Amino acid sequence: MAQRRRVSRETASRVARPRISRETASRVARSVISAAASGLTASELDRLALLIGLVCASPVGVTAIRDPAEAAARHVLDALSGLPAIDAAPPGALADVGSGGGLPGLVLATVRPARETHLIEATARKAVFIADTARELGLPVHVHAERSEDLGRRELRDACACVVARALAPPAVAAELCLPLCRPGGRLVLWSREPAGDDLAAAAAALAGEVLVPECPGVLVVGKLGATPERFPRRPGMAAKRPLSLLRSDRPRR
Length: 254
What we know:
Elements: H1 2-16, H2 22-36, H3 42-57, H4 68-81, H5 83-87, E1 94-97, H6 105-111, E2 117-120, H7 124-137, E3 142-144, H8 148-151, E4 160-166, H9 171-178, E5 182-191, H10 198-206, E6 209-212, E7 219-224, H11 238-241, H12 244-250
Parallel strand pairs: 1-2, 1-4, 2-3, 4-5
Antiparallel strand pairs: 5-7, 6-7
């Protein structure tokens, strides 16, 4: 009993611990971002610092990272590192699939405002956070509280010049979730430390795409060669439950 009471007190202490204020978090983030990304304008820097302040101070669990210096490095600087691959996409809309707390989508909308930006997040409370944060940042983005599989059957099918995802799923699964939103001639950019393997190449080929050499380290790039085949996207959840690589391995050998 004493041990249970002690555990309860420790848990209550963690819950009661005050969160960092958004002003403090923004100040720390601004210092980290400005030191590593000197090409940003003052307005971009202000917005990105405020974004990290809002993420770190939010009571909504949009990220496990609450330290503003780490959040600035992991969420902002990592997103900015993929810009060469994103800038190689043709002009047009950008979609961030599985956006979570609006990352990397709100970062990209800040530094590439010419692209119409769609942030796709199926968890309703996170989608609300993204919409509220975008309004506070003054970013005219489109927030979709839906699954990418549903949007890929409707208004965003073959619609975006660039589709991005970070920490969404293994690369081959992420490709199936994202490529139906990508228009022919566009590209998918995945933040990943994994090399492009056979599973990704097979998934890309099934969805009218091919793996490309990335313009920068830390990302995988898939080019979209043609329209999405009619059988994609599969119904929600199937990309992870029955990956295309598994379906290939189930085929009988001739």
